[in-house]
Design a protein that fits this description.
This protein is α/β, with parallel strands linked by helices. It is about 45% helix and about 10% strand. Helix 3 links the parallel strand 2 and strand 3. The two termini are about 15 Å apart.
Length: about 290
């Protein structure tokens, strides 16, 4: 079990406090690194094709200790703020929509992008992060797109190529059914069992119910943290600092992204983590186990 290899007891509550969508905007970069410096958030993953990725890379070059991975991205979901694939602009790949950008939805991406093109794009994203000075600690998924059965083998292949852990949660049949994936339950359960037997690290629990407003998001997150079970939990959130840029890019989510930023720079949340005796780690520790460092 991964928790044992990390040096924890099976009864410990080990939490990865993970920032999604790093680099999609200047506002997200400001918030991300303030949250990491504050000391509650532990790591994050960057959208490499996004317009503000180079700022992310510049910050990481100046402070290589930041625990940053690649947020594997095959979609570009905003109405007027788009990004395109890194690997190809050839229409035959299916990577790009009529606007020349990655598809807006997961369903469109799955329906149009060939598995070969998806693999080339994922590889290009990791390589670009490395080439720009990021010590890539892991890979994970934007909008869950690369977790689709069509793309999952390539996602895992890229993790092996670069010798980094891939975010991969242990999940039950019931949880798959709740997420509308009941028809694929046999596929996922058999795959996860085989992968774990071969030594692939799996995350025990995931918490994703973070994308929304709250009258007091610090209190909301403290309640979520109190409900964490023993094992390794991936807790994701999306901080960005309120600004005209953020409101223009994503008027629907600007408020709650700013609330995430405020919560994860709030001393009350830090105290909550301490009181609950949560063991906070990032993906660098998991990468070290994977590589035998």
């Amino acid at each position: 079990m991964l928790i044992d290899k990390l040096g924890f007891e099976s009864t410990d509550k080990v939490v990865i406090l993970h920032i999604d969508d790093v680099g999609f905007s200047h506002a997200s970069n400001v918030a991300t690194f303030e949250c990491l410096d504050f000391g509650v958030a532990s790591c994050g993953a960057a959208i490499v094709p996004a317009p503000w990725f180079l700022e992310t890379a510049s910050i990481c070059r100046k402070k290589p200790s930041y625990d940053i991975g690649v947020h594997m991205t095959l979609t570009s979901e905003y109405d007027l703020y788009r990004w395109r694939a890194l690997s190809s602009v050839d229409p035959k790949t299916g990577l790009l929509d009529s606007e020349g950008s990655l598809w807006r939805t997961t369903e469109e991406a799955i329906g149009h992008i060939s598995s070969q093109a998806a693999e080339a794009e994922m590889r290009a994203q990791v390589q670009m992060a490395i080439d720009n000075g990021i010590d890539v600690t892991h890979i994970d998924t934007h909008m869950s797109t690369v977790m689709a059965p069509k793309f999952l083998p390539s996602y895992l292949k890229i993790a092996r190529e670069f010798n980094v852990p891939a975010f991969l949660p242990r999940i039950s049949r019931n949880e798959l059914e709740v997420r509308g994936l009941g028809a694929l339950a046999d596929f996922y359960l058999k795959l996860l069992d085989n992968l774990e037997k071969k030594g692939t690290p799996l995350i025990d629990n995931i918490l994703t119910e973070t994308m929304g407003d709250s009258s007091n998001k610090t209190e909301y997150y403290c309640k979520m943290l109190k409900e964490i079970k023993p094992g390794i939990t991936h807790f994701l959130f999306h901080p960005a600092k309120m600004s005209p840029e953020l409101e223009s890019i994503t008027p629907d989510s600007a408020k709650w992204r700013d609330l995430d930023y405020q919560a994860f720079t709030d001393p009350k949340l830090k105290e909550c983590v301490k009181e609950l005796d949560l063991k906070i780690i990032g993906y660098r520790e998991i990468r070290d186990v994977l590589r035998g460092d």
